[in-house]
Design a protein that fits this description.
Helix content: 55-70%
Number of strands: 6
Strand content: 5-15%
Radius of gyration: 36 Å
Strand order of the largest sheet: 1-2-4-3
Order of helices and strands: EEEHEEHHEHHHHH
Largest sheet: 4 strands, mixed
Structural class: alpha+beta
Number of helices: 8
Length: about 300
Amino acid sequence: MIMSMTGFGRGIAQSDNLKATVDIKSVNSKQIDLTMRVPSSMRELEVSLRNKVAKALERGKIELSVCIESLAAPASARINNEVAARYIDELRQSSNSLGIDEPQDWWRLLLRLPDVLQNRTEEFGEKELATVTEAADLAIEALQSFRRAEGEKLYLFFVDKIKEISALLEEIDPMEAERVPHIRQRLEEQLGRLESIEYDRGRLEQEMIFYLEKLDVTEEKTRLRSHLSYFMETLGGSDALPQEGGQGKKLGFIAQEMGREINTLGSKSNHAGMQKVVVRMKDALEQIKEQVLNVL
């Protein structure tokens, strides 16, 4: 079963002192492109989280954000009296030298100055870091579940389009049976009008056979059928486990080969009905190519 690169997952974990929420969203990308937003107090987890996400998700443009909520008593703050006293001395000296009045509201001014009010930063231990890791694991699992659900929808879409192209290919067979004799008859009628020109009948037959062989599309139809079968084989069954490494790039290459054969069918057809069928094939194939970009 294929998986989509598109998805969203959220994981929430809680310990005695901390509640962690991790959100991960992913869209399609040729390679893995990971952006992370982690609180400064959890920076030491960034490398391990990056490796964990990259290994689990493989490909996609991925955004991960970590939000933490402290459940412990709020961190306290204190006033640095030494710094405040130095500010007061400096300000009084400046007031005297500049001839201006001292501030009326000292506290309002001092609390705005750097390093006067100091917050006691909260430090997290291994238990809190493990809580964030647990939330990340839950978010990855939720995202993978989303990707599998989207992959099931893509699988049904691809099966429908491959069946459509296969049915259109079958429509070409009766047209092919009447196309070559019709072209041969038309050439002979055109030559019949050239009564005053002498030509080698045997050489004409050779050239006509060579020309008709160039218009033959048997090989293209055979290869296209083979590519359609290989595409379905690569998709796997609806109940198959996701394959390691993903199948998106491989399916994209197969779709390109299918396009080459369909284009050759169109260029060789020389038949209005066949050309209409080829146009419908191209339309179905373009839809496949568009959605293959979302496959992991």
